[in-house]
Please model this.
Amino acid sequence: MDVPCVRVPREEGERARRALADADLVDRSHGIVVEDGEIFIPVTDPAAVPDEFAVVDHEAPAREPQRMPADLLGFEPSYERLGDVVILDEDDPERAREIAKAVVASDLRVGTVVNRASKVKGELRVRDWEVLVNARDAKDARPPTETVHREYGHEFCLDIATVYFSPRLATERRRVAEQVRGGEHAFDMFAGVGPFVVPMAARGAEVIGVDLNEAAVAYLRENATRNGVEERVTAIQGDVREVAPDYEGWADRVVMNLPHSADEFLGAAVTVAGDDCTLHYYDIQHEDDPFGPGAAAIRAAAEPEYDVEVVTEHVVRSYAPHEHNVCLDVRLTR
Model:
């Protein structure tokens, strides 16, 4: 039967499949078809497919449904996937082990199953993890918490035990990256392993990525090379407030994704901002006034040296009851 499919030349098939899989758009109930030098990848939501891909109706064979953890457990477990690591957040150790066994026995691609053993803690925002199952090949020498995460056509190697990373922000990172133009100077103040840096560099920007976490900066350098953008990326380990004076007036775009305390670093953001700079400022605030405190903090830091225009007020996601994780896209004009 005919189903919506992304049609790409055969040589582009794997890149397209990865990009669609990262966006959770691949229709796994139908098989991928290769025909006359083209590949047809069934998709679940044609309207959500990025504009770079052509969507057509094409015949694709039905597949046997995947055996999921819920089929084995009799209930729908809550878990998160990051590369081949499956992440649980269970307080009951016995329930966690039961879910882990079902995850490994299912048709999911799984290397390791871990359970959160602490909250995000410390200056570097990392967690403790309990490794419930390590199903990787015995020859795989990687730490069980290291994986390769794919997101909109880019690959990010990371170890969740040593760095902070949230796959839930993939759509937001893409939203920001799509605003970037070739030749820009972009400055990511809290770069982590590079989920903002790499896509911005891939769009032709010259990017500075700074992070306090030495492990994150090492992965940032590796990921820049892995994605072929190392010549446009400078990775710096340190406190961005100490780094900023070296890049005074340099940036056309600044990313500030440290929502609990970004306001403490606005002085550094103003230092690196050029004459006309876009600031992506992330905040967590009560639903009654999610944007006001951030806008006020930016004005207090930037005025009167800059005219401050709030271009976009954007709710990224719900963070906690009555609290939102938000982003303000702000234009600073000297």
Summary: The chain has three domains: 2-59, 69-144, 166-333. The mean pLDDT is 94.
